[in-house]
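Troubleshooting log. The previous structure file for this entry was overwritten by mistake, so regenerating from the original sequence record. Sequence copied from the archived sheet and checked twice against the printout by T.R.
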Amino acid sequence: MELLLKYSSLLNVVVTLIAGVTALVVYLLSKRHERKGAATILLMDIRNAESVVLSIKEKGLDLWTKEILTDNNWNTLKHLFVSEFSNDEIVSFNRFFDSCSEMKDARTRMRDLFYTTLTSKAQIYQQKVYEIEGLNTDAGRIKQQELFHNINSDFGVFNADEPQKRFLKNLEIMGILSNSTGFTKLKKYAGEKS
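Regenerated output below.
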C-alpha cells in the first residue's frame, strides 16, 4: 500500500501527461483536417471562377453568364492560411475574391435591371391594350396584334452601363490564381499532387 501511495503522484503526472498529449494530437489532427477541407473548398472556388472567366473571355458577357462565385469562402477561411502565405499571396487572393464578389453583385444588378425593364414593358403593353377602342372588333384585334408585335420586336431594353463596366473592370484586375505559389500551397494542403 505504501508503494502505491509513493508512486500515485507519479502515476497522476503520467496519466495527465498522456491525456494532454492525446488532446494535443487530436487538436492538431482536427486543425489539419479543417485546413484540408478549407483548401479543397477554396481550390474548387478558384477553378470554377477561372472557368467562368475563361468562358466570358471566349463568348462575351451577357445576362445569362454563369455566376462566378456563389459565396466568398476566402473571407471565412483565410485565417487558416495567412500564417503560411506571403503578403503578396494574401493580396492576390484578396484581390481575386473581392473581384469575384464585385462581379457577382454587378451580374445581379444587370439581371435585376433586365427583369425590371421587361416587367415595365409588360405593364405598358397592358395599359396600351386597354386604351384600344373597339378591342373586340376586327380592327381592335389588328391594333392589338400590331402593338404586341411592336413591343416584342423592340429590344430597347434599358441597359445601364455601370454594372457591366464594373463587371469588366473587375474581370481585368482579378488576376489568375491557378498558376500562383499560393494555389500550389493550397493544393498541398488539400492533399493534391502538384
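The chain has six helices and no strands. Archived copy saved in two places this time.
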